[in-house]
Amino acid sequence: MDSHTPGIHPTPLRPGANPRKAATAAWVGSALEYYDFFIYGTAAALVFGRVFFPGSNPATGTLLALATFGVGYLARPLGALVLGHIGDRHGRKKVMVATVLLMGIATLGVGVLPSYESIGIAAPIILVLLRLCQGFSAGGEQAGANSMTLEHAPDDRRAFFTSFTLSGTQGGQILATAVFLPVAMLPEEALLSWGWRIPFFLSAFVVVAAFVIRRSLDETPVFEEEVASTEPQRMPVAELLGNHRSAVLRVMLAAVIASVSTIFTVYALSYAVNTVGLERTPMLWVGVLANVVALFALPFFGALSDRIGRKPVFLFGSIGCAILMFGYLWSISSGNYVLIFVFGIVMFGFVHSATGGVWPSFYGEMFPARVRLTGTALGTQIGFAIAGFAPTIAGAIAGAEVGAWLPVAIVTAVFCTINVVIVATSKETFRTPTDELGLPTRTTDSARVASV
Questions:
Q1: What is the DSSP string of 99-110?
Q2: Domain Major facilitator superfamily (MFS) profile, which positions (predicted)?
Q3: pTM for the full model?
Q4: For 140-149, how does the pLDDT look when each residue is reduced to its tens digit (9 = 90+)?
């Protein structure tokens, strides 16, 4: 915990900085918020096709349910713009409180939503609207937590501390999947009528806990210094798109690596249960165990990137996921539970964590403090919007055939390749002081004179 990155001299923390508290708050808040987000994905894969789209055949109903999962990602860029503006103009803390409240209210609304049989077409329409609210909230969640943690952290440990935001999302996935384990064991009739609602009702406790934790946060010293030295931007997005377009584009394209997560979490689960006919419970356990491994792998890779650089760690994760997805989907098609667990845990629990442990710092380090939250939020959420529809795209190209997994693996590898190209051609930032992040390379006075 006290080691430092070679090349950066240990620097004292800024007055008011508390990286441990910020990382803890980011972890807990992200875990609680993404619990809400991922229980929707699990329910969409397992039951929503029959609850809200019963008039369709099973394959079409599942596809429509997965499409509602993807719809949430459409609202993410809008949430990124609105919440990013608030965060860069009025502070990171306000965003972190607002996102968890909106997510909790929307999730509880899904839990009390009547089925198609009760209110007809209004049911799926309201479902989509609530999913849009979830997506809007998620649009500012990670960027707010990442900016908060990065700006509290010392220069040489930014990736380690920001990795806890992503570790929190893994914790949320563990909670979401674990809650569904006993629910999935209910008889079919009970599961479809009331059982699936239990995880959504539990979100009420999630909202209260996350709100209390995030209300206790202090604003970041970096943001307060920025406000004290200059007038905050009236329209941060104007400066962002005027001076940092290339960074936004890089983050956007690199963020499609999230397709690995959505394919693993949503499509692979649906494919295993609804197409191959595997049992729900062991497939849910794959996700639980993989995320348990990720809880420890994420800070490990974050700390590693503080020592050797962001790019080599990120590239290891992206290339590894492109290869291992073939093995994971093939093992599902074969029905071999041992191989499913091995490939799933190694790919998503360990190798994918190399990307998750790095990108919270790597993306944020591309922007100065004045536009960091807006830039990170907008870039990631457009990329995540693409990744959010990866399960729908996968379901459409694969169809209902057991052996049609190969095109899905190829599509996932293409997304990973896009990420590899962007990361490989980006600037290394792990040794850049926090105050100089996102700024043009400074030229010394003597160099300027010599150039004249």
A1: HHHHHHHHHHHH
A2: 22-431
A3: 0.79
A4: 877 888 888 8
